[in-house]
Amino acid sequence: MKEAKKGWLGGEVPVGALVIGRSNKVLARDHNRCISRNDPTAHAEILVIRQAAKLVENYRLNGLTMVVTIEPCPMCMGAIINARLDMLVFGAFDPKGGAAGSMYNLSDDGSLNHRVKVIPGIMEKECRELMQDFFRKKR
User: Fold this and answer.
1) Which of 45, 57, 71, 126 is catalytic?
2) 12 is catalytic
3) Which residues contact 69 (CB under 8 A, 6 or more apart)?
4) Burial 93-126 (b: 16+ CB within 10 A, else e)
């Protein structure tokens, strides 16, 4: 939530993400930076995957967990799968673009070569309200 709020303060859609190691240590944290970087791929999930991969010096993030405020989009879910993250924990579902159970369920697609355990709904109300407040104020 702290990262999502940082994004909001910077004019970004308030999504925050962490990558957590096996000992529950936070390895990477960030928030959306698409607007500030003029980069449509600068979603919080992509940024923390890049940071964690650099830190562990491996493009595979086996045994690691991502925590994110909102259900990842198809691009981010694809990156999570390709990075071989073991688990995804997220707050609110995204019924218009979510790819971990809402619109799509890429996390458990048998035709893909990796599956990600998904734990949805952690702090769901708070995460949903943060997004709703952001867009209410934008309009």
Assistant:
1) 45
2) no
3) 1, 3, 4, 14, 15, 16, 17, 44, 90, 91, 92, 123, 127, 130, 131
4) bbeeebbbbebeebbeeeeeebebebebeebeee
Would you call 123 helix, strand, or coil by DSSP?
A: coil
Cβ atoms 40, 72 nearer than 8 A: no
pLDDT in tens, 82-134: 999 999 999 999 999 999 999 999 998 999 999 999 999 999 999 999 999 99
d(Cα 4, Cα 16) in Å, to the nearest integer?
A: 4
